[in-house]
Amino acid sequence: MKRGCFIKSVIILTIIVAAILYIIENKFNDFILTPAKHIFIPALSKEIDKDIERIKPSVERDSLKIIIRDYINEINKKTSLSKDSIENVINSIKSTLEDSVVTSQELNNLKKIMEVKRTK
Description:
This protein has 120 residues and is an all-alpha fold. It has one domain (29-119). It has helices spanning 3-53, 59-77, 83-97, 104-119. The chain is rod-shaped. The N and C termini lie far apart (53 Å).
């Protein structure tokens, strides 16, 4: 490889790497996070609604629906998401939905977990 060709290759590679890093650092939300939200949030809502329908009708069930919808709307508004903050809440919801009855204690525990995750 000639010296001029090598130098041109290094310059072009440097420009490409810089452009990729710029896009990742500054435009990540526009290109990746926002489209992912439009796919992930509706799928999550449908799945949780199906699980909630299996629960026996009660006041706690209705409250659970409202709490979960509020949390999903809040996730939709956030500009950044972390796996840990969402995963913990989803695991708590799953444990609440395991049996077909929602107690007020489970509801209060879920509210506390969501409040902690909202403040982070």
